[in-house]
Amino acid sequence: MADLAFLHAMVKGRVQGVFFRAFVEGWAERLHLTGYVRNRPGGMVDVVAEGEKHNLEQLMDNLKKGPPAARVDEVKVDWAEYTGSFQDFKVRY
Hints:
Elements: E1 4-14, H1 20-30, E2 34-40, E3 44-52, H2 53-65, E4 71-80, E5 89-92
Parallel strand pairs: 2-5
Antiparallel strand pairs: 1-3, 1-4, 2-3
């Protein structure tokens, strides 16, 4: 059985208005992850994802890079037990 996990990441930098949410959604779908991404007050982006741990680690690596127009200053990550709470991956508004 796959090693499943839950990831919560807060991304700081120039990450709003630069297609960061679409970038995250694309990677999450490619990596077969579920959860959501949304903008937060103060210019941060909130990412909640579940799936195979190695795929979550790949997502985290991409969060640190971001799309070409972004500038990622910091990614804070919390890991937790897999919950199975999500059916797919969505951009939340």
